[in-house]
Amino acid sequence: MLHSLRSTRFAPAIVGLAAALMIGLASPATAQQSPAGGALARVLVLGTGGTIAGQANARAGNAYDSGKVSAANLIAAIPGIDQLAQISAEQISSIGSQDMNDKVWFDLVKRIRAAIDNKEVDGVVITHGTDTMEETAFFLQNVLDTDIPVVLVGSMRPSTAIGADGPANLYDAMRVASAPESRGRGVLVVLNDTIHGARWVQKTNTTSVQTFRSPDAGPVGYVDTGSLRFLAAAPTKGAKLKLPDAPPLPRVDIIYSHANMDAAEVEDAVKRGAKGIVLAGVGDGNSSKGAIDALASAAKQGVVVVRSTRVGSGYVNRNVEVEDDKLGFAVALDLNPQKARVLLALLIANGITDPKAVQQAYAQP
Ligand code: ASP
Questions:
Q1: Within this chain, do residues 260 and 226 fall inside the same structural domain, yes or no?
Q2: Catalytic residue status for 132
Q3: Which of 236, 252, 277, 311 could disulfide-pair with 186, CB 3.0 to 4.6 Å?
């Protein structure tokens, strides 16, 4: 379906100093109607930091610091975004997403649930660093039970860069979050004109603006200067697990497999109290005999073991090269190690540790 055209796509200077703002009303010709009856959909923007909020730093020619500009000021600098939605912006954190943590995740859930319960919003946009965006998206997908669009957005270039991609990405995210056809599609990630689903999206390149891809499924849609298109009707829902009252989630370590590997990393994880271990295995989620034996012994001691792969795409299937039934392992299927870790922490927090039940949860799209 075609939506409003965007007339400008340049990165303007960051303006304004407001800590929070309500951005004004739009012409009805370009507005998304609010299901609650207002002229525009109401979109809550939650800022967490990241390169999208980054500012140049004198350290080196291309150096910058993440999370310096508030979400309110990012929005204030984008011409025409106020014609898409009634926007309110709040700051949840101001960090690079390499520092993303359970506390910020719990704060996001609390705020989004309150906004939904109070019927304050028709959509949510979360500005976020790209490094761990896929983990936050997948976490939210598994604990939020809502049809309203929740859209994560970031950028690869800081707000002060020539050709900053943040303003266009944020504009696109606003279009997705305010569109009725985005409802019921789970948590989405929008960058570089592309819409991805939380289960499949991965950061795949250190610097390119075309870094986010969904290798096993493809994107769920596209948003560009003239249109918003979803490719399929099928939504993904996630496991809808309960969140404990407060962080932290149970400790789950990722062990990265490599040539010449012994049991030491696995044994160390058990010693430091990991309740779960995700293997970022070679190939189809494999590892050396020493590491697999150590994982089997960890599983016998009650540590939940899930095999994923370090290769970046493809499914890890049960019992192919590794005897999962016999050793008490689960496999992550299409989930990469970092997402497999998020799900395992949530499962353990919900008391789900039996390998069969764990396996079922990984199969839930
Ligand atoms: N280190 C940054 C972050 O994840 C990178 C980015 O946002 O692109 O916050």
A1: no
A2: no
A3: 236
Which is catalytic among the residues 51, 130, 146, 309? 51
* Same-domain check for residues 190 and 275: no
Q: Are residues 154 and 123 in the same domain?
A: yes
pLDDT digit string (tens) for 149-197? 999 999 999 988 889 999 999 999 999 999 999 999 999 999 999 999 9
Q: Is residue 129 lining ligand 1, measured as CB closer than 6 Å?
A: yes
| Confidence grade of residue 148 (pLDDT, cut at 50, 70, 90) | very high
- For residues 207 and 354, membership in a common domain is answered with no
How far is the CA of 259 from the CAs of 117, 152, 282, in angstroms?
51, 36, 9
pLDDT at 310: 98
pTM of the entire predicted model? 0.88
Residue 330 neighbours by CB distance under 10 Å: 29
The SS3 of residue 35 is coil
